[in-house]
Amino acid sequence: MTVDQGVDITKAGDRGVLKRIIKEGEGADTPNPGCQVTVHYTGTLLDGTKFDSSKDRNDPFEFQLGKGVVIKAWDIGVATMKKGEVCVLTCAPEYAYGAAGSPPKIPPNSTLQFEIEMIDWKVEDLSPGKNKGILRHIIEQGSGEYESPKDGSLVTVELEGKLVSDGKVFDSRTVTFSLGEGSESNVCEGIERALEKFQKGEKARLTIQPKYAFKSEGNTELGVPPNAAVEYIVKLVSFEKVKESWSMDGEEMLEQARIFKEKGTNYFKANKFQLAIKMYKRIVPLLSDMPEDSSQTEENRKQAKELLISAYLNLSLVYLKVTPAHNFEAKENASKALKLEPGNVKGLFRRGRALRALAEPDAALRDFRAVMQAEPHNKAAANEAQLCRAALQQQRRREKQLYANMFDKFAKHDNELEKQRARQEVDVIGEKVGEWGAGEGEWTDQQRDRKPTDFERENPNILMLNRDGQFHNM
Question: Residue 80: pLDDT above 50?
C-alpha cells in the first residue's frame, strides 16, 4: 500500500515539495515572505531516523520567511500554513540539502520529512525603525524576480483605503505617479515606502500608522481625520525601471539632473519644500558618479560642476525655509557649494544666515563681510552683518556681566576668608595665653608636648608666649 505523501506545492510541479495536512489550521490567513514565523518541527529521514526536533528541546524555532535562511522546501511549505496547522513536508534533495547533505546526520542526496506545527507569525514590518508603523500582509505574490520600483520610478497602482477606526472606505482608484512624489497624488508616505519592496503584480494589505499616513493634519480632500491609522489594499500593476547612473553617459546624466532641478524649483515655488529637497538631493549622487575620464568633454564636466553647485545652493535655501530644525543642513550644503566654488556669494550669504541662526554670529559675520567685499552695495548682507554685530555686543555684555558677578563672588569669598583667618589668629593667641599656668611660671607636660596646628605652620609670624612669659615668633 502506498503511503499518501501529500500534494505537490511547487510552482514547477516537479514534486520536489509534497505537503500532507495532519491538523487543519485556523482562518484563511497564511504568512508571507518577510514575516517572522514561529514553528515546532521534527525532522526525519525516509527510514524514520530522527535527526532534529525543536519539540525535544522544548524550544520553538523562529525565522524570517522567504529570505533564504532555511532550506528551500521550508520557504515554500511554511508559506502555505495557517495558524495552528500541523503538516508533513516531504522534501526532495534539491529542495533540502542537495548532493552534499548535512553530515553527519543527513547523508548526501537525502529526501527528508518534516512534521511542522505553525505556532504563530508576526506580520512584516516595513517601517524604518521597525516600530510597526507600516505592516504588510501579502495577499497575492508578485511575478518579479526580486525586482522592485526605486525612488523616481513611474508606478501604476490600484488602491483601496479605509480607516482602521471604523472601516470607512475613503479611497478607491488606479493612480500613476513617480515614486517619491506620491503626495502630489494624495498617496501617503507609507505606501511609497512599501512599494519599494513590492514586485510587479503583488497585492498586499498595508496597515499604516499616522506617522506614515496623513499625520496630524489628516487629508480633507480624502476625508481622513487627523492622527488616523489607515489600511490599504495595494496592487502594483506596473512600474518603469529607473536607469542606473552607471549605465548613463555624460549627456544623459546632465539631462536627468536638469529634470530634477526643474522639478525641485517648481516644488519650491509652490512651497512644497520636502518635495523640493527630494528633487535636489537626487542630483548629488547622479553627478557625483560622473566618471572623470577622457570620455567626458570639458563642457560636460563644467556643466556638471555648475549643476552640482546649484543643487547644494538650492538645498541650503530650502533648508533655511524650514527653520529652525534644518539650519545645520543649510550650513552644510552651503559649505559644500563653497568647496566647489570658493567665494560664491550665494553660498557665503546662505551659510552666514545658517550660522547666525545657529548662534555663531562671529563666523556668520565673516561670511557677510566677504559678501560685502564682493558686492559692496548688497543691502541684505549689510543688514545681516548688523544683526551679527548686535548679537556679538549682546554676547559681550552677557559675558561682562557674568564675569562681574564671578569677581564679586570671589571678592566676597576672599573677604570672608580674611575675617576667618583674623578670628583664628585671635583664638590662637588667646589659647596660648590661657595655657600659661596662672602664677605657676612653668609649662605643664601636656603644654610642653603640644604640637603646632596646621594654621600655625602656615602662619609662622603669629606671636606666642614662651616659658618666660614673653611673646616670640613660632
Answer: yes
pLDDT at position 140, please?
87
Task: Determine whether 52 is an active site residue.
Answer: yes
Determine which one of 8, 29, 52, 120 is catalytic: 52
Active site residue 280: no
With pLDDT > 90 as the criterion, what percentage of the chain qualifies? Answer: 71
Q: What is the per-residue burial (b if ≥16 Cβ within 10 Å, else e) of 212-239? A: bbbbeebbeeeebeeebebbbbbbbeeb
Residue 288 pLDDT > 80? yes
> Which of these is catalytic: 97, 177, 268, 312?
97
114 is a catalytic site residue: yes
On the 0-12 / 13-18 / 19+ scale of CB atoms within 10 A, 144 is: middle
> CB atoms < 10 A from the CB of 52, how many?
16
Q: Hey, what's the cell of 156? A: 501604476
Closest-CA residue to 165 (of 231, 219, 234): 231
Is 41 marked active-site?
yes
Q: Which of 29, 41, 119, 151 is catalytic?
A: 41
pTM summary value: 0.69
Give a three-class secondary structure readout of the chain. Answer: CCCCCCEECCCCCCCCEEEEEEECCECCCCCCCCCEEEEEEEEEECCCCEEEEHHHHCCCEEEECCCCCCCHHHHHHHCCCCECCEEEEEECHHHCCCCCCECCCECCCCCEEEEEEEEEEECEECCCCCCCCEEEEEEECCCCCCCCCCCCCEEEEEEEEEECCCCCEEEEEEEEEECCCHHHHCCCHHHHHHHCCCCCCCEEEEEECHHHCCCCCCECCCCECCCCCEEEEEEEEEECCCCCHHHCCHHHHHHHHHHHHHHHHHHHHCCCHHHHHHHHHHHHHHHHCCCCCCCCCHHHHHHHHHHHHHHHHHHHHHHHHCCCCCHHHHHHHHHHHHHHCCCCHHHHHHHHHHHHHCCCHHHHHHHHHHHHHHCCCCHHHHHHHHHHHHHHHHHHHHHHHHHHHHHHHHHHHHHHHHHHHHHHHHHHHHHHHHHCCCCCCCCCHHHHCCCCCHHHHHCCCCEEECCCCCEEEC
Mean pLDDT of 446-466: 54
**Catalytic status, residue 71:** yes
Catalytic residue among 8, 21, 29, 51: 51
Q: Active site includes 268? A: no
The active-site residue, picked from 71, 76, 116, 138, is 71
Q: Please pick, among 75, 76, 106, 114, the residue that the annotation labels catalytic.
A: 114
How many CA atoms within 13 Å lie on the side-chain side of 357? 19
